[in-house]
Each structure stands twice: as structure tokens, then as C-alpha cells.
Amino acid sequence: MVNYKKYSDIEIFEGEISRHQYPWHFHDSYTFIVVEKGSVFYELNDRSTRICETEILIIEPFKVHRNIISQTTVYKAFFIPQEYFLREDEKIIMTQEVNNPKEVYHLKNLLNNISHKNSKREIEELISEIVESLCQPKTEQISDMKATMNIIPELNPDLTIDELANKANLSKFHFQRKFKKECGLTIGQLKQQEKTIRAKKLLEKGKQSTDVAYELGFFDQSHFIKYFKKMWAITPKNFK
């Protein structure tokens, strides 16, 4: 069973999944992973880790990763826009595992309280508590992350690889190699991810699954269902 819920501009995923392997992907928000039962194995582009009930995983925006579930697992994913974490002193939260019992307990309470807040102002105050407890001084790694953040939003997924390479003044071969090195995904993987994200937004607006598949250029309905479920662990029909 899988649910996606929104509280202001924060999205919360809640799921009980027995077996699933997500594709390599990233989010443009901060992602907080809270496991309530079982465990989730995460592969990031620079390391791997298994998250269980005693830990919380925080993934920074545009950090390429995939998660693999091989046993019955109940967990939540909180997707919080990066704007909440921007500060004038340039402190920022990096990808990290929180495993100190007191910090895990405190952070879980803050995250779970998001669904009980009735206004954006209350949510902002709650996120501020999270930010203050986790922010770190700026490092060279942050500059690298910001460079990646600048590349991906400017990419038009509707352009062909040849057109993208021409805009970058590179050959097709060098553009694809450079893009994979800097962003962690191939152009094809990114295009597929963007299509499933756009599909999710169209379904949220009430569009029918068949219309969404046609509008986004999926080969047929079965291909749309396959890619959507792989990315979101739920079929388009059951997504609300």
C-alpha cells in the first residue's frame, strides 16, 4: 500500500512495500527517509548504505540515487523544497545519515508533526527547527552540488540529444559523457524521469491515465504503467 499526501508545498510518501527496485533518479527537494519497519538499501553515486528503524537518511537535492527494498518494509519519505534550507550565511544540509538516538527521536517527531500543522507559517516554523539542528558550514562539496543544481533545471527534456549537444557546443559523444559524469544520469534516464514527474503532476490535476500516456508520448499504456510504477511504486490508476 502506497500513499502520497501534500501539506502546503511538502509532499509525504507513506508505503508498505515487500519488494521493489527504484531506478536511478534524483529529487529537486531535500528527501528525509524514515523507516518504521524493515530496512531500505540505498545506492548513491558515491557510496551505499542500509537504513533501518534506528536511523534517518537525508538526501540533498539532485543527489543521484536508487533504493532497493527486498523485504516487507514500512517507511516514509518527506520531500521538502530546498528553499526552506537556504540561509544568508550559506549554511546548507548535505547528504547524511542521522544515527544518534536522541537526534533520531527529535527529528522523527518534527517530521511527523508536519501533517498536524494547519498553516504554511506553522510548517515553516517546524522546518526552521529541523534546519537549525542539521545545518553545516559551507564546504567545497556544496559548490559542486550547486553546480549540478544549475545544470539540470536548465535542461529541456523535449530537445533531442543532438540539439542539446549543439547548445553546449560539444559533439554528441562528448556531451553525453560529460553530462553523465557531472549529473550522474544519462540523458535517456533523465528524460524518462522527467516524463514520470510530469505524468504525476497531470494525474494530480485529475487527468485520465490514458490521456497522460498519450500526451507525454509513451509507446502505449502498458509502457506508461510500467515506468510510472517503477518510479513511484504505485500504478497511475491507484495514484491520487
Chart the SSEs and their pairings:
Layout: E1 2-7, E2 10-17, E3 20-21, E4 29-37, E5 40-44, E6 48-51, E7 56-59, E8 65-69, E9 73-81, E10 96-98, H1 101-112, H2 120-134, H3 140-151, H4 161-167, H5 172-183, H6 187-204, H7 209-215, H8 221-232
Antiparallel strand pairs: 1-2, 2-9, 3-8, 4-7, 4-9, 5-6, 5-8, 7-10
Summarize the structure.
This protein is α+β, with helices and mostly antiparallel strands.
Structure description:
The structure is a single chain. This protein is of the alpha+beta class. The protein folds into two domains: 2-138, Jelly Rolls, CATH 2.60.120; 141-232, Orthogonal Bundle (Arc Repressor Mutant, subunit A). The protein contains eight helices and ten strands. The chain has a six-stranded antiparallel beta sheet with strand order 1-2-9-4-7-10, with helices on one face. A four-stranded antiparallel beta sheet has the order 3-8-5-6, with no helix packed on it. β1 (2-7) and β2 (10-17) form a beta hairpin. α4 (161-167) crosses α5 and α6 crosses α8. It is globular and about 50 Å long. Residues 140-150 have low confidence and may be disordered.
Name a few traits of the molecule.
single chain; 240 residues; alpha+beta; Jelly Rolls; Arc Repressor Mutant, subunit A; six-stranded antiparallel beta sheet; four-stranded antiparallel beta sheet; 10 strands
Give a count of the beta strands, DSSP E runs of length 2 or more: 10
Within CATH, the superfamily of the largest domain carries the name: Jelly Rolls
Question: Which percent band covers the strand fraction?
Answer: 15-25%
Total count of domains: 2
| Arithmetic mean pLDDT | 85
Structural class: alpha+beta
Shape: globular
CATH class assignment of the largest domain: Mainly Beta
Low-confidence stretches: 140-150
* Elements, N to C (H/E): EEEEEEEEEEHHHHHHHH
Strands of the biggest beta sheet: in what spatial order? 1-2-9-4-7-10
Give the helix level as a range of percent: 25-40%
Please work out how many helical segments DSSP would assign.
8
Gyration radius (Cα, Å) is 18 Å
CATH architectural group of the largest domain: Sandwich
The largest sheet is: 6 strands, antiparallel
End-to-end CA span: 12 Å
